[in-house]
Amino acid sequence: YCQPCLSPVWDTALAAHAMLEVGGEAAETRARRALEWLKPLQVLDVKGDWADERPDVRPGGWAFQYNNAHYPDLDDTAVVAMAMDRANVDSDREPIERAVEWTFGMQSGDGGWGAFDADNVHHYLNDIPFADHGALLDPPTVDVSARCVSMLAQLGYGQDDRRMKTALAYLEREQEHDGSWFGRWGVNYIYGTWSALSALNAARIDPQAPAMRKAVDWLVKIQNQDGGWGEDCESYALDRTGHNPAPTTASQTAWALIGLMAAGEVDHPAVARGIAWLQANQDADGLWAQEYYTGGGFPRVFYLRYHGYPKFFPLWALARYRNLKRGNASHVAWGM
Predict the structure, then answer these.
(1) C-alpha span between 261 and 198 (Å, rounded)
(2) Which of 30, 32, 129, 192 is the most buried (most CB within 10 A)?
(3) Are residues 167 and 212 in the same domain?
(4) Does residue 218 sit in the same domain as residue 303?
């Protein structure tokens, strides 16, 4: 394969979340060190390409790479800010406040968020001859929008906030008929459904709400016979025909489990079976192997293999299951 870029901000922030879920002095110290490394990478003084649409918004996001100040993204920004809030790493809340300011400023007119831009919805451009991958734009997507909702809800913005209302309405509109959600930057329906369920839980949507019930039923329905979950990159298709089954992967199993637990289903037999799969398939080094690509780039052209995904996501799912069971709880208190 070809390595298109590095993803240190994204990987570090997600690993910090996993460490915070594990808990204990050693893991939390590691998470805080990671967040200290992330703090100075926040883009506070460069107005990138996004400012063409939002010239009056102050910068405040994080980029995916070590340094890409003209292209911070909402996904990384939300994940970093949520981890900082959870870890309470610093009495100085300015990094989180600047992230919130930039996130609200980048909300698109339909209530959702794209990764890098606002209102990038000129879909006719996908029909020009050299746009053969059909993904020339950066329109709002469920996974990025859900991450922004998760962050804002974790920070106390509720359903009574006008901007949150429009964001939640966007997520509701985007749910597929079968109960799933399509995720743009991961493969694909499992990824989107995990993201949306986490956001709805963070926003205090009733776990018995129809949208959450349909999503839970869908995740249970597509569970593999071995107890895990898998999805093929064929799901990343322009015609959006739905989930394409695949052999179980560690990262997709973790996403499904975290999504089900966000929907209040920690005691569901499907969750127990998924946890058992992760336990049974853990390697001697404590991690999980995964050859399948579970990251999305551009359909039919570009798919991503995140080497960290089968490491920190399964750990995160196992730790969350342990924590909920130990606390005799069914509600997840965090945005992710």
Answers:
(1) 9
(2) 192
(3) no
(4) yes
Query: What SS3 state is found at 155?
Result: coil
For residue 134, pLDDT over 90 is answered with no
Contacts of residue 25, Cβ cutoff 8 Å, sequence gap at least 6: none
Residue 222 belongs to a domain with what CATH number? 1.50.10.20
Q: Where are the beta strands (DSSP E) in the chain?
A: 229-231, 245-249, 295-298, 302-304
- Kindly state the percentage of the chain with pLDDT values over 90: 89
> Given 75, 76, 117, 143, which residue is catalytic?
75
Please give the average per-residue pLDDT across 34-40, as a whole number: 96
Query: What number of residues does the chain have?
Result: 336
Query: Residue 225: is its pLDDT beyond 70?
Result: yes
Residue 108 in any domain: the answer is yes
The verdict on 70 and 159 lying in the same domain is yes
237-262 as b/e, with b when 16 or more CB fall inside 10 Å?
A: eeeeebbbebebbbbbbbbbbbbbbb
Structural domain of residue 68, as residue ranges?
Answer: 1-174
Q: Is 132 a catalytic residue?
A: no
Q: Are 78 and 59 in contact (CB under 8 A)?
A: no
Domain count for the chain, please give it.
Answer: 2
Q: Residue 256 falls within a domain, yes or no? A: yes
Q: Would you state the structure tokens that stand for residue 253, as one six-digit string?
A: 């199993």
- pLDDT for residue 1 is more than 90: no
How many other β-carbons are positioned within 10 Å of the β-carbon of residue 129? 5
- Token output for 183: 């995720």
